[in-house]
Design goal:
The complex is a heterodimer. Chain A is of the alpha+beta class. In chain A, 30% of the residues lie in helices and 26% in strands. Chain A is built from three helices and four strands; from the N terminus they run E-E-E-E-H-H-H. Chain B has four helices and four strands; from the N terminus they run ββββαααα. The longest helix of chain B has 20 residues. The chains are: A alpha+beta, B alpha+beta. At the A-B interface, strand 1 and helix 2 of A face strand 1 and helix 2 of B.
């Protein structure tokens, strides 16, 4: 079967020397292509600059949403960010697909910070891994109940008071 | 130096009239997984879903696969669709499966909205994009106010 539609979305986080992250997200699909590039300052995880392009879209009108990207400068990656980005960049007068690229980048910033502890824990086996996860959950209570691995009844939750 | 990358690749095909089938792959430094999602038009109902986890972080993650079934019979674009997926497939299962499923659903929706343009334009060279978009808005009413094109 020949595909009618294809999409490739790629996000990357690069470490900049000046205590910040360079977050790049690009999407290319059958009807649309766009990219967003943000600098996120550390340790506050605050967006200090953003630029982006709609490179191809069904309608030329979609270009009108690009200036809305500036609304994100000053935002911090944290609670409430999804609604803020969807309201200010997506929504009736914006472009939800540009908002989605920003949120993809923010999600990947969070994943970048979950990676170092996982790099230590995942190679462990059996009881050693179980205990390492229990310590990790105590340090990161936001993860408790966030997925089936950390749901009630999971061995990783044993002995953990919530 | 790069410290993290994530790539998602989606393909959508139409094996039968009014059926769209998406195959999605997610691969990043931590996770790798894939999904097959079947959606029935015109109501965008999820009628089938299968998934596979290839690289995960815990011995419990595989238990998220049956939770994909929580998406069956939901309709893309229905009220609180994203929240329902994030809760039923994500929180009760795996948030990365939910993320990939939403990507597949959005791809299906884009194909359903714009996929007919080329054929219609070939049939009627005078067809404008504006009138095509108006027709799509009639067919898919929840597009209204979804972005600056439909406001």
């Amino acid at each position: 079967m020949i595909l009618d539609y294809t999409r490739c979305k790629h996000a990357s986080i690069a470490e900049l020397e000046e205590n910040s992250l360079l977050v790049r997200v690009a999407v290319e699909d059958t009807f649309y292509a766009a990219e967003v590039e943000m600098v996120v300052g550390l340790p506050a995880l605050e967006v200090t600059s953003i630029k982006g392009k709609v490179k191809r879209a069904f309608s030329d009108k979609c270009q009108q949403a690009v200036p809305l990207l500036n609304e994100v400068v000053g935002m911090r990656v944290g609670s409430g960010i999804i609604k803020a980005v969807n309201d200010l960049v997506g929504g009736p007068s914006g472009c939800p697909r540009l908002a989605d690229l920003i949120l993809e980048g923010f999600n990947d910033v969070i994943l970048r910070y979950t990676m170092p502890p996982l790099r230590e824990i995942v190679p462990l086996a059996g009881q050693a891994q179980l205990e390492a996860y229990q310590v990790y959950l105590r340090k990161s209570p936001r993860l408790v109940g966030s997925c089936i691995a950390f749901a009630e009844g999971s061995p990783y939750r044993e002995g953990l008071e919530v | 130096m790069l410290s993290f990358t994530r790539t998602k690749v989606i393909g959508v095909e139409s094996p039968k009239e009014n059926i769209l089938l998406a195959h999605g792959v997610l691969d990043d430094n931590i996770y790798a997984m894939e999904l097959d999602v079947e959606v029935k038009l015109p109501d965008f109902e999820i009628t089938g879903i299968q998934g596979r986890m290839k690289r995960t972080t815990t011995a419990e993650c595989w238990k998220a696969v049956p939770k994909l079934g929580n998406a069956i019979s939901l309709r893309i674009g229905e009220e609180r669709f994203i929240s329902k997926i994030n809760r039923g497939v994500g929180k009760q299962g795996c948030s990365h499966f939910a993320n990939l499923l939403l990507e597949c659903c959005d791809a299906i929706r884009q194909q359903a909205i714009y996929g007919g343009w080329r054929k219609l334009k070939e049939k009627d060279a005078s067809l404008s994009k504006e009138s095509f978009l108006k027709e799509q808005l009639k067919k898919i009413p929840d597009l209204k106010d979804s972005c600056l094109l439909y406001s």
